[in-house]
Amino acid sequence: MAVSDIPDIPDVADVIVVGGGIGGLSAAYALARQGVGEVGAGLQIAPNCTRILDEYGLLDEAKALGVVPEAMVMRDAVDGEELTRLDLVDLERTYGFPYMVIHRSDLHGIFLRACRRAGVELLTDQRVVGYADTGVGARVELADGRVEEATVVIAADGLHSVARRLLVQDEPVSSSYVAYRAAVPIADVGRPVDLSEVVVHVGPRCHFVHYGLRGGEMLNQVAVFESPKALAGVEEWGTPDELDAAFAATADEVRAGIPLMWRDRWWRMFDRDPVMTWVHGRIALLGDAAHPPLQYMAQGAVMAIEDGWVLAEHVARQRSADGAVGWVAALAAYDAVRPEHCRRVLTTARAWGELWHLDGEQRLQRNAILRARDPHDYTFTDWIYGPTALTPKDEPPMYPTIPLDSAALAAAP
Ligand SMILES: Cc1cc2nc3c(=O)[nH]c(=O)nc-3n(C[C@H](O)[C@H](O)[C@H](O)COP(=O)(O)OP(=O)(O)OC[C@H]3O[C@@H](n4cnc5c(N)ncnc54)[C@H](O)[C@@H]3O)c2cc1C
Description:
Bound molecules: flavin-adenine dinucleotide
Strand content: 15-25%
Number of helices: 12
Shape: globular
Oligomer: single chain
CATH class of one domain: Alpha Beta
């Protein structure tokens, strides 16, 4: 898509954004405000994202389409016991903006309509096969041989980004975990579910998440597990038989959700090691192209939306009185702040996944630490749910780590 607003160079788009996912669309919208898809289920969006939606004037629409739950509850997947909770009403008071859940296609639709209103030229079915920095701008080469040029190209082309190869020769890293999803009408659920809560059941090598969508008309479920076939090097891994086996020993309320999972499609979970440079001349990576995470922090789409907001803020700061944008400085400011924040999220998501999936004594140690947590203690969320940093000095400190073996376990009877 092209964000065209250079009055003095009418034939060259200001910005080409490659990729029509949430990252690409939200970035195109963010930049359009400064004058210049996937089938899926639910997304959790935290206050560091709803703050930006509010600034864009899109939060009320998101709230009308989604659900603003009252609590996030973590339970043990084996015995169902509650381990800890976040009071989301208090969390909203603390951070000023809600934690909410929304259908992915609804959030996508919100940005699509916003892009149209802002005059973004949207082109579908365009496959970019090459990128080139020209020094004064950037070019993309399309699969049909056409070449498009712009002052800046934002590559929001996802996990398998072509543009990323300009910066690093890496590959997606398999976690051997796989996600099954389901978004089903509440009438089809067949068990009582409290839609005022986002619930995550954490268990040995598996976890299960559920929450309401569309004002409570739908239930969203995500079932994630480690695939024995993946560990054994079998090519066809993460298959439905593995889903059933992974959850066979979980609590009744978890097992009750498994038959509802979609079985014709599953999402093998890959991330990539963090990279600390996302800008190559006039080409910048954004969203999963720059920082695909394991989804345990529920921050992948959120980080993509933050990326676009940060870049657009720096565009605004680098705009001179005659309207020209100091793109080199804006891209440098973006590159100075976002990679470190996203590195923290990526590495925390990996650690969070390990913590969720513990077994044996370590599971009991984790449970003891979580049970001891004060539900109104925000030490572990301040680094992520506060205002998105625009400069490295605004980036809040990380949380303190608690060693597992510091847990006081009750003596065996
Ligand atoms: C099970 C699961 C649950 C998740 N839950 C959450 C959550 O609760 N909260 C959250 O914030 N995140 C969550 N995420 C992560 C989130 O989905 C992603 O991080 C986010 O969608 C990334 O958006 P993106 O636009 O960067 O990439 P994508 O959505 O992958 O979009 C990339 C776009 O680029 C296009 N593209 C690719 N290659 C090319 C090319 N060569 N030329 C042109 N176009 C191209 C694609 O067609 C696509 O439209 C979850 C992920 C999973 C798998």
